[in-house]
Amino acid sequence: xxxxxxxxxxxxxxxxxxxxxxxxxxxxxxxxxxxxxxxxxxxxxxxxxxxxxxxxxxxxxxxxxxxxxxxxxxxxxxxxxxxxxxxxxxxxxxxxxxxxxxxxxxxxxxxxxxxxxxxxxxxxxxxxxxxxxxxxxxxxxxxxxxxxxxxxxxxxxxxxxxxxxxxxxxxxxxxxxxxxxxxxxxxxxxxxxxxxxxxx
Length: 200
Known about the structure:
The protein is of the alpha+beta class. The protein is built from 5 helices and 8 strands. The strands form 3 sheets. It has a 4-stranded antiparallel β-sheet with strand order 1-2-3-4, covered by helices on one side. The protein has a two-stranded antiparallel sheet with strand order 5-6. The protein has a two-stranded parallel sheet with strand order 7-8. The two termini are 33 Å apart.
């Protein structure tokens, strides 16, 4: 516990003195507890999110930094992005399996800035570019995004990320392939990944 608090104090000071571009620590959020922070974020200039304001919620367990923080968007404005669910959950590998104690809050903030800045469109055929399983996921997921088992891959579909559950329920849309190709993809995924993995 003492090492966790020491590490958080160090990172807190770094975030206050040298925050990533567009990021500001919400000082009120750390007045009562050092294990829960809110970081105010503004969309980077020249991106689809320029001028938009968001909030990131960080929660730290007693095992931090060996255990990754719980990170999600919170507040009234959740960014529209293919890797961000409308409840604020973020599909980003460094928040789970690619986490390392060498990473920090600043590292996470920079990764999220980069993720948003690289987005090319927020609307696709008049639909918001949420993950295609957004409605189902938001209804059924755990409140803690770290409880979700994610499967990360390089997105090649115009609607990626998608969840394995959508394939199993035949809800995967806009797949440009023939029937045999669909069956091969489905067979591969059924034999390789368990049912409760989410993909992004």
